[in-house]
Design brief:
Layout lengths: L1 H63 L2 H10 L2 H11 L22 H47 L5 H23 L5
């Protein structure tokens, strides 16, 4: 029995270490995706700010009646903003009080960088959750390792008792704990 419990203790510790490694790997991937999402979000935000600034300049040129300058500004929009701008113009924004405030408020507006950032953040969250599950699995296997070590300790202590009934009872407790831990370990996910 001691040999079986010793092997089970080693196996449980080994699997706990593997789950810890998986957790670290998944957390690393999640962090990488978060950094990539932050970079895409920053770049997408910069594009939106640049387009909004150009749009403000366009409004000033339009208000001043300088169509040549206004046309120059329109050419400077990013392609996605220009698509939304053209849709915005169709709402008659200079005469229609219910028109959207600007192209960024149009359903046609897309910012691929911001969309990519959102996707990367979703992926990072899912990967981080997988890492958390791996951590929980590692902790469960570690708990089983401790329980198996406790079985070894109780069996060793049982041999020291001089009263046979105490020895048998202590050994029975150790066997029950070993059986519980084996069942517990068999229900845990494998890696």
């Amino acid at each position: 029995m001691l040999a079986i419990v010793a092997v089970a203790t080693s196996y449980s510790g080994y699997v706990a270490a593997r789950w810890d490694g998986r957790q670290a790997l998944l957390y690393g991937h999640a962090s990488t995706d978060r950094f990539r999402a932050d970079a895409a979000s920053t770049r997408g935000g910069q594009e939106l700010v640049a387009d909004a600034s150009i749009f403000t300049a366009y409004l000033q040129a339009h208000s001043a009646g300088d169509t040549k300058l206004a046309t120059q500004y329109v050419r400077r929009f990013t392609p996605d903003y220009r698509t939304a701008f053209n849709a915005w113009l169709k709402t008659a924004p200079f005469t229609n009080p219910s028109a959207p405030a600007g192209p960024a408020d149009m359903p046609q507006y897309r910012n691929p960088l911001l969309e990519n950032a959102a996707h990367l953040n979703e992926t990072a969250s899912a990967t981080f959750e997988e890492g958390s599950i791996a951590r929980d699995n590692a902790e469960a296997y570690l708990r089983d390792t401790v329980l198996f070590a406790t079985v070894l300790f109780v069996v060793a202590i049982a041999q020291r008792f001089k009263v046979r009934a105490v020895r048998v009872t202590t050994t029975a407790i150790a066997l029950a704990l070993a059986a519980y831990t084996v069942v517990e370990m068999l229900t845990l996910p494998r890696i």
